[in-house]
Amino acid sequence: MWLLGPQSVALYLHFLNVAGGGGGAVNFTDNPFTLDKLRNTLIRLEDTIIFALIERAQFAANKTIYTPGGVELINTTGGRSFLEYFLWETEKVHAKVRRYTSPDEYAFTSPLPEPVLPPLEYPKFLYPNDINVNDSIMDMYISSIVPAICQDTDDKQYGSSATRDMECLQALSRRIHYGKFIAESKFRADPETYARLARENDRDGIIELLTNREVEKKLLARLRHKALVYGQTMDQEHEGTSAHLRIPVDTVLELYERWVIPLTKLVEVDYLIIRGLAYKSGPTHLAD
Length: 288
What we know:
single chain, mainly alpha, 10 helices
């Protein structure tokens, strides 16, 4: 979204048009951010994440790139690991071209420079918040995902590994933080109940109200099929089976069951607590 030209941005803004971009009241029944449209975005992100994992799996774990001081960095300071340094330098460039002004993009590093491009006017949909779970995503990725998909060796391909790490991390971050859009859409469907649960700080109640177990069941079944198909090398005689996959199917499922879904719900609940506490009763009121 952050690299789109004026025409594409115009289409995006048209899609977002009713989210109250002009300020004032919002009609909860007139919302293009339907759960079906949001879930279609999440389905596309499944593809992005699986392919990013496949690309990372072609390199060794290269654990040294995750350890501060593990790779000698010439003329640098700060005690960062090679991956952290790589991310920071990349995100500084991206920040200058306003990547992190987009409501669905979250940086892993700081400080970052201000954009050199004029700001884009994104219509308001999300309530203002500073929820960012990238630290948890980074910890999960390094400690659980890389060891599961990569051989426990060092092939010296540090730059290539860090490039693929960055792609995986950014895709996971976007997928998990997209829970804010899901949460806002669900809030608008039942603001009074969510606001009550937020005032009571009933996190379990919010999770129960949020959770659609049938959707989660379909998600995991779809992921299994995608991981099986995308992970194959198509010239193998075992096409259509789990033999010789580039990434284990169970690893993809565990990634979602153990990390992606719970972290997304954490984001959603934290967001809904903030959203509900700020809500002022009324069928069309969007708290400012």
